[in-house]
Amino acid sequence: MRRLSKQRLVLTICLVLLIAAAACTNDGSTSTSTAGPTTNGNGANGQNGNPARPTPTVNPPVPTVQPVRTSTVDTMSISGKPVPATAARGGTLIASVWHSEQTFSTWEDHEGASFVMMHPLHNLLLQPRTWGDTDDFQRHSFLEVHPDLALGWEVSRDGLTVTVNLRDNVSWTDGTPLTCVDIAWTYNSIRTGRGLIRSPRSVYLASVSQVLCEGDHTVQFILREPQASIIDALALPHNIIRPQHVYANDTAAMRDRLPTVTTGPFVVSEHVPGESITYRRNDTYWDQPFPFLSGLQFVILAESALATGLRSGTIDVGKPSGYAYEEAETLESECNNCQVWPRALAMGDTHHIIINHAKEPWNTSGLKEVIALAIDNTKNIRNVHNGWHFPPTGCGTYPFSTWAMPIDRCTDIPGFGDFSTKSSPAADKAQAREILTNLGYSPGELSISILFSEATEQDIPAVISDFQEIGINAASAVLNQRNFLARISEGDFDAAVHSEWAISDTPDILLLGHFYTDGHDNFGKFSSPQLDDLIDRMGATTDLTTRRELAWDALELALEQQAKIVVSHGVLVPIYSDRVHGIMPGLDFQAEHGPQLRYDHAWLAG
pTM for this one? Predict the structure, then answer.
């Protein structure tokens, strides 16, 4: 086994230190407006140049690459990605996909296999970083933004124009040059939803009024008002670039048919629906000397079979974002042909309760507060997750970033004091029972139905007992992920326990997606004009201190009104076959929806 971290040292200590550490993470730094060809403010050096705080659940790194044999002497690819001298050509990487196939449209899908299948075929305008060692991983360098089809970008002084220069050496596989027309059509389709069944991430581009071309190789994004997170929004991994000349008059083809006109490092050689998809190297790929691999294959396996596949050597990559619980512990201790990366706090696996704000009586302020007070965060972490989850000491923000809400402010919010000295689970439940009495409800008079997905069903005993202890009858229903998302999207629920959250060095993605009135993850249909105004003002502000205060005001307002009730954050450990080199894991949606799945600079040892 090749270990990129020691096996398990810090997790048990970290739970004790977490609150104290989180209280020390907020500094008084100010922002500087920058733009450049390789990174925005969210890179390896932290927001606006502040030193990034490493995830507290990891151990000191060891070298991540072992010499194999020399075949490449270049130091950088055309796009500026590092090319190790030890990289070897050839071989087929075998990875898994456990999502059932839905469509081939990353623009429209919430989940599914489209992200896995499409990234090897396509490029992004701007992309999150996909290369690095354990130092880079611990600094969350996978959130850095780098050019892909772009050469670089510039934000105007007034913040209303983003100019992106394009590479002039890229053609589609049918020989048509890639131009600004393709970029403009892609982003205009995503932001307007024109021709699409849905566009779940259009909210992140709401400030963009036009996407214009200045010649073939310059694109301009015209904003109605400044948006500090615009570069992050443009670089979301769902925004793969599609050919305008193929799909402009037939957007249904993006959903229904595998693409044959692409720009990516691989092309499809075989597709067996429901079983596998196989790719071969695109020998004319523009970002030479990539790809190193001769081929790539995704096989559809049950999620329960992925760890076994890694241990047996039949697959090289199982879960892209990593493993937890007994599955991770078994791989760490027993997989002799695995490389183990550091454990990391995975904000994307944040368990939270969604209340249906359009359904009586649960949309009344008193009952929403009762639910928040009923949930025992520490019991959930201790008894259900056995230390593989951490308390939400940043109130939904990453607890160790400069954006983390101060612990004293967070624990003043109803339901968040039970993991501090300000309250206790018993005191919170006593207060919940008192509120129910004041509202005129007798013990056992109220009944609530709670939906769980397969990812959160382990929470059922703890959550149900929390409700019963305050005198509310609670029943559970477990649905597969697709049906769960369908039910909560349609508003057909009283309450639901969900596991998906936003991971970003800035709060815009979280606030716009989960709490804004039109946010695509605002399944509870929470709506507050005051909150929307705070989020809008934060998004238009470039000063870091002001942005941070507005973000905290917005998040505090959302959580005080129980827009969502944050329970705990997960921990994951990325584990690959030890013959895989050249890629750095991401976390959460960056890992499962992002260009880590492109494998353009991955290579195999032996």
Answer: 0.80
